[in-house]
Give the backbone structure.
Amino acid sequence: MKKVLASCGTIPAALLLLSSGEGRSECRAENLPYGSKLMKRTIEPNITAQSEFAQLRELLDDTERQVVEMHKTPAGAYEVIRNLDELEGRLHEAEKGGVDLRAEEGRMDGLRRRLMRGAPGVVRMVQASEHAAALHNSPTYQAVLAAQLDESRRRVRRLLTIGLPVLAVMLTIIVLTLLNPPPPQANLNPVRQLAADGRLEDALARAQSEVQRVPSDAEAVLWVGSLQLASGNTAAAEQSWATARQLLGDETRFHFERGNALLGVAQTDAAEQDARWLIERPETAAPGYLLLGGVEEMRGRVPEAIQAFETSADLASKAGNTQLEVIAKTRLGFLMQSAPMMGPTATP
């Protein structure tokens, strides 16, 4: 009886002491409310192992929550690493007792993988919290440092594999640009807009200003000549065109670009002359018909414009000039969309 009393400890007189005779002792409460903590308590032989297993699972639960929110507090990563070290020890001890730990091991593996994937960030958080020195003997922290080192090496290899060739190309472009800078260009957009608005004098003044700024821009000189022709100053226009012809050094480019500049100031007859000059030569017929299509479109002669654009696209396709073919078909498409429906006129 003394042995039973020692097992149950000091209890109120209302408790009845029983001996089961099967290697365990019971303390049963009589005349106590149902559900009372003192109502019944059985002391099993493996209660210590069960308690340790429950603590292990509780620590796992806490660590899984902490690893999600460890970036929110300065010591978050440090606490997660400490918990993982403790969990490793507890799992090792529990394995000795023959407990089935497969589920817990799987959860531990998930925690380890998550920590290793974010190793560089974890190390930064630990160092920012000033707890790095306290983890010098931590197996988990040593594994995190090793993962960070591996990630750094992979990053360097990626830079060497991808970054260096790209850097070499960029440096080559920069050097070539510095050695051979692109020629300056005149800004002709305001000139075109002023001409489209019918403000030819303002357009001419702006074009002349651009020529003074960039005297080597042949297109700007062609615009000056076209605007001079539209203003009735034919002699000045001829001088400007002579300068442009000398700058370009190419008769085909001269006639094509002058024709486009003349269209910009609605000089269709003069532009047609440049188109005919190009069409007469088989090697330049495709751009000639493209220019002619623009002339006929400006005159409002839609069927003739459509035929010119189609001829330009066909000739460019046969010559393998894809860019010119696309331009001609695009002009043709816009024209056919905007043109009025054609057909026989009904007689009243």
In short: The radius of gyration is 45 Å. The chain is about 70% helix and 5% strand.
